[in-house]
Design goal:
Layout: H1 14-26, H2 31-50
Helix pairs in contact: 1-2
Length: 52
Amino acid sequence: MKPLKEKISITVDSDILEKVKKIAESDDRSLSQYINLVLKDHLKKLMCEENR
């Protein structure tokens, strides 16, 4: 079973958005997929730091 997803609205600085769009495109991912990947990676790193 796929994890549930929710739609949200966020405000992002335009320069950051342009950079992220370019990276997502070069990685052959949608913007949403790439942001989700980055957030998962960030959370994983935070959890590792907490467990030290």
